[in-house]
């Protein structure tokens, strides 16, 4: 039933205290049990069971027509299989990356399911579906760690060194973006600094430039690639990211039925793996929020979870950034840990 796969992704914050390792292990089993109950509801086409597995916020924000369609039940899929591929539990939040196969229908999909604890049980907060398997980066991008030392100190960018310009390619005065970066126990933080204020997320754009996809701001900052060394898994490193300013449009009808198109600025963060495949996207503006991307004044701030790069918390990795384009306008940049920069 299509309604079973129609819910969009939304992160929900929780308030339960952190659990010790033994509780986390038992928590993983409970989350996996809830995931298999999703399979049972799908096999039966049981709309009431489907609702019983969702949290209240999901149900409260659903369209009434969609609710009615699910309550009436739908086509059962007796042979469907929900196979968990990866799981992460953080306090009273969890995420499962899974594979959903229906031999009878000849279909295979992949899902990322966010769970929260509600009334003492794990409930589905939302789902995201894909035709391709999700990268392990998603485990940490959608279920972030707590704030690291850099954010707890108020993100003091003053004193963080800038990346050096490759003066053999470009003059310093011609560089549109300055780059800073640091890391703490949970994240790598990167700041792009423009010479002039950049358009704010959601800012209106005139139709003249909006129609041709222009935001009125500078060109996007250069894409950057991570190089990770040290006590980290083999998959660490090779990830790259970029930020782009885009124009979104929305049509509205006036009192006389005349349709007006409104143009506004959005920003998107894209993350790619070592093969160049996009594995994650986060959008800011036009009704969308992003916890990994912030834009204000002259700055674009990005934070990348170290866990998503394959780095364990506390492992003290060596992280370098290099421009991912073929022409290097900035020289390779060593990212100093925030704790060392404070000394």
The largest β sheet comes out as: 7 strands, antiparallel
Write the element-wise H/E pattern from the N-terminal end onward: HHHHEEEEHHEEEHEEEEEEEEH
Task: Tell me, rounded to a whole number, the average pLDDT.
Answer: 88
Strand percent estimate: 25-35%
- Give the number of domains: 2
* Terminal Cα span: 58 Å
* Overall helicity: 10-25%
Stretches where pLDDT falls below 50 for ≥5 residues? 1-24
Based on DSSP secondary structure assignment, what is the total number of beta strands? 15
Query: Rg, please?
Result: 22 Å
Based on secondary structure, the structural category is alpha+beta
Coarse shape: globular
SS summary, helix count:
8
Structure description:
18% of the residues lie in helices and 35% in strands. By secondary structure, it is an alpha+beta fold. The chain folds into two domains: 2-134, Roll (Nuclear Transport Factor 2, Chain: A), CATH 3.10.450.50; 149-342, no CATH class. The strands form three sheets. Strands 7, 8, 9, 10, 11, 14 and 15 form a seven-stranded antiparallel sheet that branches.
């Amino acid at each position: 039933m299509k309604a079973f796969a129609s819910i969009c992704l939304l992160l929900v914050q929780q308030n339960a205290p952190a659990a010790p390792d033994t509780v986390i292990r038992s928590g993983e089993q409970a989350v996996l049990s809830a995931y298999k109950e999703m399979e049972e509801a799908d096999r039966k086409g049981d709309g009431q069971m489907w609702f019983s597995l969702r949290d209240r916020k999901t149900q409260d924000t659903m369209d009434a027509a969609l609710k009615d369609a699910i309550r009436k039940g739908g086509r059962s899929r007796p042979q469907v299989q929900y196979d968990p591929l990866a799981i992460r539990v953080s306090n009273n939040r969890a995420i499962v990356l899974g594979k959903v196969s229906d031999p009878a229908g000849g279909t295979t999909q992949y899902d990322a399911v966010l769970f929260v604890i509600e009334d003492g049980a794990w409930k589905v907060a939302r789902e995201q579906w894909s035709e391709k398997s999700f990268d392990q980066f998603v485990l940490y991008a959608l279920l972030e760690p707590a704030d690291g030392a850099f954010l707890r100190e108020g993100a003091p960018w003053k004193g963080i060194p800038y990346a050096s310009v490759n003066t053999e390619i470009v003059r310093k005065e011609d560089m549109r973006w300055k780059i800073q970066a640091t890391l703490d126990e949970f994240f790598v933080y990167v700041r792009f600094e423009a010479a002039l204020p950049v358009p704010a997320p959601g800012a209106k754009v005139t139709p003249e430039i909006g129609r041709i996809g222009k935001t009125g701001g500078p060109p996007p900052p250069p894409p950057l690639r991570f190089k990770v060394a040290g006590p980290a898994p083999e998959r660490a490193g090779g990830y790259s990211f970029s930020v782009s300013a885009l124009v979104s449009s929305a049509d509205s009808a006036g009192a006389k039925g005349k349709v007006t198109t409104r143009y506004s600025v959005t920003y998107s963060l894209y993350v790619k793996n070592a093969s160049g495949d996009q594995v994650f996207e986060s959008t800011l503006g036009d009704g969308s929020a992003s916890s990994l991307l912030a834009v204000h004044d002259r700055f674009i701030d990005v934070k990348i979870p170290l866990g998503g790069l394959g780095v364990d918390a506390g492992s003290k990795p060596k992280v370098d950034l290099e421009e991912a384009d073929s022409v290097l306008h900035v020289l390779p940049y060593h990212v100093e840990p925030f704790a060392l920069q404070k000394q």
